[in-house]
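If your schedule permits, I should be very grateful for your opinion on a structural question. I have a record of one protein: its chain in single-letter code and its fold written as C-alpha cells. Would you kindly read the sequence against the C-alpha cells and tell me how you understand this chain to fold? Thank you for your consideration; the sequence and its C-alpha cells are set out here.


***
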Amino acid sequence: MKLGILGGGQLARMLALAGYPLGVEFVVLDPSAEACATHVCEHLLGDYHDTALLAELAERADVVTYEFENVPAEVAEFLAAHTVVHPAPKALAVAQDRLIEKNFLRDLGIPTPSYAAVDSLAELEQLMPEIGWPAILKSRTQGYDGKGQSVLRSTADLAAAWELLQGVPAIVEGFVDFTREISIIAVRNVAGEVVFYPVSENLHRGGILRVSECRMDDPMQQLAQDYVARLVTALDYVGVLALELFEVDGQLVANEFAPRVHNSGHWTIEGAETSQFENHVRAVLGLPLGSTAPVGHAAMVNFIGGVPTTERLLKVADSHVHLYAKASRKGRKVAHVTVRANSIDGLTAAVSELARLADQVDDS
C-alpha cells in the first residue's frame, strides 16, 4: 500500500516513520525542495495547484491524506475525483475558515466563545460592545501558531489590529477566561468506529504550543469525548482529528479543531499503545485501529527556533528525542522531546528540565 500526503513537513515525516513498520510506502507533494519529510518519503516537487502533479499523486497513491489544514480545499476535491481522500475535503473546507468552523461547532451544540464576522474597521468598532473586552481579532483563513491574530484590550488597539490583517476577511472572538487549555484526539475509521486518546493538558506561549501532558482519568474526558464524537460523526470523518478546548467553570468551550494529526498528540509516540500517527495511517488505509491506552505517564515538550545537542537532551531521564531535520529559524518548530515515566513526580521533573532547556534556545 502507498499513502500520498499533501504537505511534507514534520507531521508527514512522523506519519511515514509510523507507517513503514506496517509495510506502507509514502509519497508527499510539497512545493519546497527542503521539506523535511522528503528524507523518508518519495517527493513530488511542485505547487499544490499543479494538476499534472496532482494526477500523478492520485495515480501513485492508494489513498491521499494531508498533514496540515491550509492545503487548498479545491486541491483535495480534485484528488477526490481521482482517488480516495481521507479525511474528506469537507473537513478541510470547514477547518480552513474560522467563521464556518465556529458556525459548524455551534450547530452541533458545542459551546464556543462569542464571535462575529468582521469586514471593515467600522464594523469592528460597532461590534465590540457586543463582543466585550478583551477580544481577539483573527484572520478567517491561513492562521496557525498565533499568526494572523491580535489581542484587543481597548478601542486604541482596533485600528492597528485591523491594519495588520491588510483587509483579509476576519472574525472577532470574545476572550475566554479559562482555567486551562486541553485537547482531545479522536480516530474514526471508514466503518464509523471511533476511539479516543486521553485528553492532553496544554501550555501555550505566544500562540505556540510549548508543553502537552497526557491526563489519565481527567474529569473532562467524557465531555470532551462527547463533543469530538459529534464532530467526527457530522463530518463523516476518517482519520485523526484534534479538538482544542478551554475549561471554564467546569465546562468546556471549543477553540478550534484540526483535521489531521496534532502537535498536542506527539506524546502518544512513546506514551500510548498506538501513536496518533500509526492510528491515522491505519484509519485512512482501512486497517484495524490500535489501542489508545496510555503507557505510563507521558508528556511532550516543543523546541522552537533552536534545539540543544542530542546528548544534552538525552541526559534528561526518560526522554525520547525527535529532531525534524529542519534548519533553525525564528518561531519554527524544529524538534520535540517526549517523556514517559512511571510516576507523576518523575514526569514533572523531566518536563521541568526539558522546558528549561527549551527556553534557553527559544527564538519565537
Remarks:
- The mean pLDDT is 95.
- The longest strand covers residues 239-248.
- The domain at 180-361 is CATH 3.30.470.20 (D-amino Acid Aminotransferase; Chain A, domain 1).
- The two ends are 39 Å apart (CA to CA).
